[in-house]
Amino acid sequence: MPSSGASPALWVQLTQALVARELVDTFGLPARRAAELLGLAPSAISQYLSGKRLRGPLAHASTHEEVRSVARLVAQRLVSAEHPGDIAPVLLLEAARDLSSAGRPRLPAPPALTGGEYPGRPTNPEFARFLRARIMLEQTAVADCMRLAQKSRDELTRAIFRQIASDSLRHAEIVASIASYLDRGLHRTVATGVTRADIERLIAKEHEAESRTGPGVSTELGGVLAVLWESMESDERKHEVLLAHLLETGLPPPERSSPAKRAPRRG
After folding, report:
1. Which neighbouring-strand residues pair with 189?
2. CA-CA distance, 170 to 107, in Å (whole number)?
3. d(Cα 43, Cα 35) in Å, to the nearest integer?
């Protein structure tokens, strides 16, 4: 897999190759159909599948399940879209950006314990099955919302369904990451690298933004316009809840200062 400093073009090519393999190997599509969905020449797909192009990076990337999961989600959205040619470039660029941002997709499971993780117990098999089912449901919601977005005839309605699809896709990634932690016996983690003061400053800025909301929104906006505005407001409320919970349970306990040593007695 290329380093995070590799060119954007290389990351896009690697993403195309990974998605092409998922379309053929996972979804069972013919190579020619995969080429149509991706907007590529059939010869390019053949080279990706045979390993003649990007042999080293592609072989390395294929061994990382978190990388393949990104490509699999893109493939699923292309298969379920009514007009995949309209969304393929955007999906590929977004996936390539995620992979290249740190040489991996967002929300990966770290390979070893860090200071914010606590070894725990094996995961309840029933709960593990629930998590897998939740991922599948979220991925189905992504496909359904993208179909509705393509069916919609106005940009504002499409924006609503795309937002829901984006949320569902993020939910699937979050659940997958949680499941990977539980598979390693980790049932509790705390935030690292940020302080209580950092979070409190962010909360203050969020409150300041909310206080500057324009007057008369409920009377000025209606229909889909009002729905979009409410989506933004609901996100702000969610941010407030998340930050409050982070302060309450997501930070490591304060370090206790060690008692001062007594000076030895003389005499």
Report:
1. 117
2. 9
3. 9
Angle at 84 between CA 93 and CA 164, to 5 degrees: 75
10 Å CB burial of residue 104 (0-12, 13-18, 19+) is middle
* Span 149-208, pLDDT tens digits: 778 888 889 888 878 877 887 787 678 778 777 877 778 888 888 899 999 999 898 888
Q: How far apart are CA 143 and CA 169, in angstroms?
A: 9
Closest CA relative to residue 100, chosen from 174, 180, 3, 13: 3
pTM above 0.85, yes or no: no
Are 23 and 34 in contact by the 8 Å Cβ rule? The answer is yes
Domain ranges of the chain: 1-106, 107-189, 190-251
Long-range pairs for 203-212: beta carbons < 8 A, 24 or more residues apart: 203/240, 203/243, 203/244, 206/236, 206/239, 206/240, 206/243, 209/236, 210/236
**CA 3/CA 249 separation, integer angstroms:** 36
DSSP string, 89-132: HHHHHHHHHHHHHTTS-SSPPPSS--TTEEE--PPPHHHHHHHH
